[in-house]
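Q: You know discrete backbone vocabularies at least as well as I do. I have my own habits and do not want them to colour yours. No explanation is needed for now; the record alone will do.
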Amino acid sequence: MSKSIGEETAVADYAFRFDAPPDRVSFTNRIKITGWLLHRRGLPVYGIPAIVRGILRPRSIFRARRKRSRPLIAAAYPDLPDAGQSGFLLALELPAGPSQVTIEVQDHEKVWRTIFVTQIWAWPLSFLGRIGLPRVEQFLVTYLAQFFPGKARSIAAPARSESVARIESGLRHGNVETFVGATSSIQREIKTVHLFVTSKSNLFIREIAELLCAGFRAAGCNAQLFVD
């Protein structure tokens, strides 16, 4: 999807970055997105909301907790008074299935401007906690997440200039002048997934397995369900 002129202008006016982009597939319906954002000319920011739109659910709006301490950003932007408190936290609740997540900023004129749009598939396993298996839920969420190393597909990527990357990297190593690129790691991506259920299992268990298969397929895997 191409960006509108308004989105391109918003991205150009703000410097922002996520600490970790959201995963493209989530096995929990609650996710957190943290990062920092500030206006390049030091103009005030009045809000950072995220809008979640699901297929069978009306849109939900989640407002970020702002003014979180970011000493590295203060050092990188000494001329901007709000840089030291430019951090934010978004706590989102996702419906099952695909959702469009839009992050906006309310600018100095209190106009809402889009800065980031992405698609996330959620296949929450919270039912395990509700039936008294919280450790099983935690294990499966952690275990399944490792098969999806890719991040969410963004429609409007955040503005992160190479100069900002150099400053942040230099600050982490105590030297603003030097930029050290991150070392690349080789990770094998899973393409085929086989799930098994016993023929003695009830319909509820099979529905869970089919839901997991659909999540793997949505992430680009060749997933099949077998009954032993």
About this structure: Confidence is low (pLDDT under 50) at residues 1-5, 153-168, 170-187.
